Amino acid sequence: MARIAIDMDGVMADTTQQMIDWYTQRYGVEVDKATLYGLPEATGFPHDREVMRSFLFEPGFFRTKPVIKDSQEVIRALQDKHEVFIVSAAMEFPPSLGEKLEWLGEHFPFISWQNIVFCGSKSIVQADYMIDDHVKNLQPFKGQGLMFTAPHNVHVTDFRRVDTWQEVAGILL
To answer: What is the C-alpha separation between 164 and 173, in angstroms, rounded?
Structure first.
């Protein structure tokens, strides 16, 4: 039985799609996800990065993110074979704490509160595997890092990459 740490934003919850949706609602301009590939997170929109980052502080942003395809089924299956923890560096955006907990309760009700970790730095995480979309979280990790593909990390080659939750299942189930 392995211990697996799973990031929320960009891995379970589709942050990029949420940015696109909120931008479209706010400014009436649709941005094609493909145009964001290879760009730093929250860039590639007609407005600057700070405008885009302001969404992260607005009520509802974290609560209404779309679920990434197949994450629910695969995480449930992982729990049957492994010790699974959801680990989110939520402290940067304190209003997100309650929203993230509510989001998990709605979309992943099978995950116990005892297996949810909200933290600042993920450098304290000890597990066999960490699935994350950010280099800054995988670099200090002592176990096997799995880089979940997101537009901002498509050029990263330092970690084993997983593009979908079905690929995660193929590795860990």
So the answer is: 14
3-14+66-172 CATH, one of 3.30.200.20, 3.40.50.1000, 3.30.70.260, 3.40.50.720? 3.40.50.1000
Catalytic residue among 7, 14, 132, 133: 7
The single residue of 9, 14, 132, 133 carrying the catalytic annotation is: 9
7 tagged catalytic: yes
Residues forming CATH 3.40.50.1000 domain(s) in the chain: 3-14+66-172
- 49 confidence band (pLDDT: 50, 70, 90): confident
Enter the pTM of the model. 0.95
Residue 86's Cβ-count burial label (10 Å; 0-12, 13-18, 19+) is buried
